[in-house]
Design a protein that fits this description.
Two copies of one chain form a homodimer.
Chain A: E1 2-8, H1 12-23, H2 25-32, E2 35-42, E3 48-50, H3 57-65, H4 75-87, E4 93-98, H5 110-119, E5 123-126, H6 130-145, E6 150-151, H7 163-169, E7 175-181, H8 184-194, H9 199-208, H10 217-220, H11 223-237, E8 247-248, H12 253-264, E9 267-277, E10 283-293, E11 306-312, E12 316-322, H13 327-350
Parallel strand pairs in A: 1-2, 1-4, 4-5, 5-6, 8-10
Antiparallel strand pairs in A: 2-3, 7-9, 7-11, 9-10, 11-12
Chain lengths: 357, 357
């Protein structure tokens, strides 16, 4: 099975995806009968490239890393042309791989890219949480109406299977709710605070070490966790919410004393993302720092460790934990989504599609 | 898609499977286009039943629970006749559901039942760890040569996805090793010991509460954990070992002092099952009580909680945790294996099978 891929966005994640795909190409052919060819790349500031016969994407990644350009063009026009070009491919699968920088308060431009991919007859894979957090119902309906996939395993806990876990390995199960630690930056900071550091120096150190962003507000104010919470609730519980519907409390100067006090009481302060169903059927989604009992699985997570505890009707509470983080994990999420598309394509050729998860 | 099922063994797990299948029948039809019909049941002491039009299995379960018999026959002859009968079914899928009592030191009679199912052209699903622990290579080769499935999700951590997790959600990934707490009885006992109980009273209490078996030696001597370790190593790392190849240390009277000492040092004594690859390529598999650092994810597991930490090449360490245990979870493992068979069947009708996991 041949998959032609167009890469919208070619930052750290997109470039690592390109090299990872090259590294695992033989394995994907052997195990999955899947051959992937990157036919186009569009970027905002490094130009764009197109070759229907396939681009040497690792070389393109090196060029961009050395400050070079992929070729003329770039930006929204190049992206539109790229997707239009991909739509004309006669490969078995046409997949847009979306990894642009996200405006987390609006979910853009990722939502527009996914929308355009689907309306052009291409499968859409994104590393961004925006589309699932803001527009899951619309996009999954659009995808399923055209027998296309809209996948985003990398949106929460990088390549650790969350959405795939539920869809592929928990058939006929209902997710009743969840709680998790899903933002690595705030978990790093809280780990430092409970060790006695003050907030500002801890944050500055995280920034110096590249763990926190130059503008850390999206993490410390809980926006990143809220977007992940909305994505999880939308997909696993059909919540139909946006991150603006998540009751959100971040961490700040006052968290230092709270973290130390929690630890003195044998507890651990963690930024907990959770959702449950209220008696009226609506979803209550919350992000807030909570002093957890020491024997809570989430309490034991330090630094970049993340975890999600699913409450299910048949399996009770099931937790999946990411103990390390890396760019490769995020890039792998895109590879695993590609494999999902290939497997679904194979199944669909034989029978009508299953109900969308 | 219609699946005819023959149940070999009808103890607690087999009976809960029958009722769970009835409870989720509509869901399986809607979500998976899968209709399941139990056409036969064989037991060792409660007779056997056969009806090509379908048995009312929940009623049969109630009858057995009230001390009744399913009908004449039973034992090995009935099982052979049952599988021969199933093999003549013209349903889309013919599946043997194996839940007999296991001789954990030999893997029998589960291995024979799986072997007979496969050689008769039926898919084989078992709740037992014996077949994967003792005969994985043979049985998986036999299955794949006949385009049949040999599945056993319930063998480790009940219905929590382990084998499905790796096969379905981690494509193109290598498992380099694992460590876990996979035996609930010993974890219950160690939790009591670290709280200050002595070994014999703790064990007696577990037996009184139904947590430990009347003959607890398979658990406390580490046999159960060793069988699970062998199954995990065989499937995830192609180890080709048996439980006899696992270096095995159980727990006993001396564990009480060790557990208290560990806790005083801020550590936790847990029965850890692990495997890794030695420089010569062979697998080193071990079950032993280990005093873990308090911040080890496995240290935080108390009582019936189990967890497995996979070391992978692309995702680093990934952990999956079972925080509660129940008969429903074990029975659910069989349901999830049935769904896997249905999905694979659908994919196989369209294309050659993928390489066996």
């Amino acid at each position: 099975m041949l998959a032609d891929l167009a890469l919208v966005g070619f930052g750290n994640v997109g470039r690592r995806f390109a090299t990872l795909l090259a590294e695992r190409g033989a394995r994907l052919r052997d195990d999955e009968d899947l051959t992937c060819r990157i036919v186009g790349i569009s970027t905002r500031r490094h130009g764009a490239a197109w070759d229907a016969a396939g681009i040497d994407a690792p070389a393109a990644a090196r060029a961009v890393e050395q400050g070079g350009s992929l070729g003329e063009g770039g930006g929204a026009d190049a992206t539109a042309a790229l997707i239009a070009g991909l739509a004309r491919s006669t490969a078995d699968l046409r997949v847009v791989i979306e990894t642009t920088t996200l405006d987390i308060r609006a979910g853009q431009p990722a939502i527009d890219h996914v929308r355009l991919a689907l309306s052009s007859g291409c499968h859409a894979v994104t590393a961004n949480k925006g589309p699932a957090a803001f527009a899951y119902e619309e996009l999954s309906r659009a995808a399923s109406a055209s027998n296309l996939a809209f996948l985003f395993e990398g949106a929460v806990m990088d390549g650790i299977p969350i959405f795939n876990l539920v869809r592929e390995t928990m058939p006929a199960i209902d997710v009743l709710g969840f709680r998790g630690v899903v933002n690595a930056t705030t978990n790093h900071i809280l780990s430092a605070l409970e060790d006695g550091e003050a907030f500002a120096p801890a944050l500055a150190r995280m920034q110096a070490e590249g763990i926190a962003e130059a503008d850390p507000s999206l993490d410390v104010d809980g926006w990143d966790a809220a977007a992940k919470t909305a994505a999880l609730a939308n997909v696993l519980m059909r919540a139909g919410i946006t991150p603006h519907d998540v009751r959100r409390t971040g961490i700040g100067e006052a968290s230092a004393a709270a973290a130390v006090r929690a630890r003195a009481e044998g507890r651990r302060l963690r930024l907990v993302a959770s959702a449950g169903r209220l008696p009226d059927g609506s979803i209550d989604a919350v992000v807030a720092p909570i002093a957890l009992a020491a024997d809570d699985l989430l309490a034991g997570l330090r630094g970049q460790a993340n975890a999600l505890v699913l409450s299910t009707d048949l399996l009770g509470q099931v937790a999946i934990c990411q103990l390390e983080g890396s760019l490769t994990q995020t890039a792998y999420a895109l590879v695993s989504d590609l494999v999902t598309i290939a497997r679904q394509h194979r199944a669909r050729r034989a029978a009508p599609p299953r109900r969308t998860p």
